[in-house]
Amino acid sequence: MKKDKEAMRKSYKRSDFATMERGMFYPEVAKGTSVVLLEPAVAKAFPTSKAVNEALSELLALTEKTARITRRSTKARAKAEQAD
Questions:
Q1: Number of domains into which the chain is organized
Q2: Are 38 and 52 in contact (CB under 8 A)?
Q3: Which of 4, 74, 80, 81 fits a 20 to 30 Å CA distance from 21?
Q4: Does 8 fall in a domain?
Q5: By the 8 A CB rule, do 25 and 31 touch?
Q6: Of 52, 24, 27, nearest to 38 (Cα)?
Q7: Terminal Cα distance for the chain, rounded
Q8: pLDDT tens over the chain, length 84 residues
Q9: Is there a domain that residue 52 lies in?
């Protein structure tokens, strides 16, 4: 049974689909990149792909550095487990 063409979810608005283009992200996907939709506030702060990638790369580098600082050594972890 086919649904009526006018029966869309209430959260959808026809105006949202007016500017969309079928397959518009195909070249990026074909290159193996990920396409992500940003919230308006985030898109305003990071207007280009380069800006987003730089910020995320720096965040990853920072998390790697801080993970090493907070990680317990294997010996300390073993001692803590024995104490429990």
A1: 1
A2: yes
A3: 4
A4: no
A5: no
A6: 52
A7: 62
A8: 455 666 666 776 666 666 666 777 777 777 777 778 899 999 999 999 899 999 999 999 998 888 776 666 666 667 777 776
A9: yes
